[in-house]
Amino acid sequence: MDSLLLADSPYHNPVLALDNTRNVHKIKELTKGFLHKRSILLAVSKTFTDEIRLGLALNPPMKSSLIMANTYVTQLPDGTERGDYISLDLGSTNFRVVLTRFGGTGAANEFHVKHYTVPKEFRRGQSSHV
Prior knowledge:
The protein is an alpha+beta fold. The protein has 2 domains: about 1-70, no CATH class; about 85-120, no CATH class. Helix content is about 25%, strand content about 25%. The chain contains 3 helices and 5 strands. The protein has a 3-stranded antiparallel β-sheet, with no helix packed on it. The chain has a two-stranded antiparallel ribbon with strand order 1-2. The longest helix is centred in the middle third of the chain and has 19 residues, at about 40-55. The chain is extended and about 55 Å long. The protein starts with a strand and ends in a 6-residue tail after the last helix. The mean pLDDT is about 80. One of its GO terms (biological process) is intracellular glucose homeostasis. It is an enzyme of class 2 (transferase). One of its GO terms (molecular function) is ATP binding. One of its GO terms (cellular component) is cytosol.
């Protein structure tokens, strides 16, 4: 039986075990462009982290390739949060409204998501028409 998992993968990927050699060969051919060695993944991760740091720096030595925006998040949740919270996400084509109900320590949290399409006339119109 053959396994489709990189030996040096930094992730805990599920192992796809196949005993049909022909199928294994087909899958390996189809996925070979998506499989990278650990060294490549770590290099990509480092580059991305470096770009984030540049984007967040007050006076960076050079411009980041990433556009960074302040999220105003001052601390991370610790699991004791209780209550209802609304999140709004306005993208270029969708507006998402998320109601999150936090139950506090040990309680299950609920997420309710509504998606709305942003009409084309609002995406392409002039700002003076708003």
